[in-house]
Design brief:
alpha/beta, Rossmann fold, seven-stranded mixed beta sheet, 7 helices
Length: 224
């Protein structure tokens, strides 16, 4: 639970800074799964994924499709979010996902993903610890071993008319400690309670962990 908050809170901050939510805005999340940012975002949004293992939850409107072929018109969303997706895409398919996200975005596209060899090595270490303790690694952690993680060079060449900003998300040390704690249900329940009772305090604490060297990096692309 805290892991999802750590990656979505900075994304939502970037969205709120750039858009007037009072007038409404159309948001698309690519690779949302059944919940996506709806866990922390109370407004209706479209979430798309290749499959939904669980029934999608409100306020998300679910669409089954691939991020490499979005069935939406050009600039049909104010914001497109692609969170923890790029590391699951084969390296030769990542540019297509980026191109599609930018095509359907009218104003902002936000990408966040575990970035570079250090983050990949950390996940490999975490997975080995699950196996040593005879615990089943999460599916996403197994999938993280399939391809090298993308790095900051993924956005070294962006299409004309876009500006990119990069911010660190979760220091390597914080991510490691957080994942160790989330293996145990009492900690997970405590995190859920904290997010329910004192969400702003939790967000401030998480924001202090957004420093170098980072596990995840967030790229905010703004249409000029």
């Amino acid at each position: 639970m805290l892991n999802r908050a750590a990656r979505y809170f900075p994304i939502l901050r970037e969205i709120r800074k750039r858009l007037d939510l009072r007038n409404g805005c159309r948001v698309l999340e690519v690779g949302s799964g059944p919940i996506g940012l709806g866990e922390f975002w109370p407004h209706p949004f479209v979430g798309c994924d290749v499959s939904f293992p669980e029934r999608p939850r409100a306020p998300m409107c679910a669409v089954r499709c691939s991020g490499a072929g979005l069935p939406f018109a050009d600039q049909s969303f104010d914001v497109v979010v692609v969170s923890d997706v790029m590391e699951h895409v084969p390296p030769d398919g990542r540019e297509v996902v980026i191109s599609e996200a930018l095509r359907v975005s009218r104003a902002v596209a936000v990408f966040g993903y575990p970035c570079g060899p250090s983050a990949h090595a950390l996940d490999q270490k975490l997975r080995e610890q699950y196996l040593i303790r005879a615990m089943t690694p999460p599916i996403w952690l197994n999938e993280h071993m399939m391809y090298p993680f993308p790095d900051a060079e993924l956005f070294s060449e962006i299409p004309a008319g876009w500006k990119v900003k990069s911010v660190p998300n979760e220091s390597l040390d914080f991510h490691y400690r957080m994942m160790q704690m989330e293996k145990y249900r009492p900690w997970d329940y405590l995190f859920r309670l904290g997010l329910l009772v004192i969400p702003r305090v939790i967000e401030k604490l998480l924001r202090r962990a957004d420093r170098e060297p980072c596990y995840r990096r967030i790229f905010v692309l703004s249409r000029q």
